Amino acid sequence: MKEDSNHEIEEQKHVKEQGDNEVASYVTEETPLEENLSVEEKLPPAVSAFHYAGFWMRFWAYLLDLIVVGSISRLLIYPLFRALDIEVASSGLFSAVNIATALVFYLYFVLMTKWKGQTIGKMVFGLKVISLTDSELSWKTVLFREWIGRYLSVTIPFLYILVAFLSKKQGLHDYFAGTTVIHEHTLMVQTPAPSL
């Protein structure tokens, strides 16, 4: 009985030595270990990044916002001015109705962007304004972006086309305010280029 147990122990040692030799020969083979990996394992790890909103998505969101602002003006300002017997048909740049409409326009963009990070147009298209420097939008950033920056973008409209060409898809107002617009519910997956 003792001989059987000694024999089993010897046999186990022999099997272990053979296994160690096979592992050693596998590791020391000239074939690189990379060839034993699947295609997915050979790829560098993916990095997720913001999916920046391009020119056309922002354009359609802005058009929808113009419809919303126009509707608010037509539903609130015009009836109020008519009730107060204030002229609504004046064509002067600084007429009461134009000043009130401009105030609604800017307040809409400032308040919606500060409180929600997006206007109704951006909500519909799944877009959101984010700060590139802070975790959330500050009043200073929002006021600069929506008041001064939007004034520049409306006054000189061809500057808005910068969105199509800048890497983070920023308009002039975004660039100076340190903000950008992203797709709210998607990330862009980027894989680093393989090094040579």
From TrEMBL:
Residue runs in coiled coils: none
Chain residue ranges for the region called Disordered: 1-21
Any Pfam family hit: RDD
Entry's Gene Ontology cellular component terms: plasma membrane
Chief site of localization: membrane
RDD domain mapped to chain residues: 52-178
Positions of transmembrane segments: 59-81, 93-111, 147-166
Membrane-related topology note: Multi-pass membrane protein
Biased composition (Basic and acidic residues): 1-19
Cell location: Cell membrane
Keywords annotated in UniProt: Cell membrane, Membrane, Transmembrane, Transmembrane helix
InterPro entries: Pra-immunoreactive, RDD
PANTHER family xref list: LMO1584 PROTEIN (PTHR36115:SF9), PROLINE-RICH ANTIGEN HOMOLOG-RELATED (PTHR36115)
Protein name as catalogued: RDD domain-containing protein
Organism this protein belongs to: Pseudobacillus wudalianchiensis
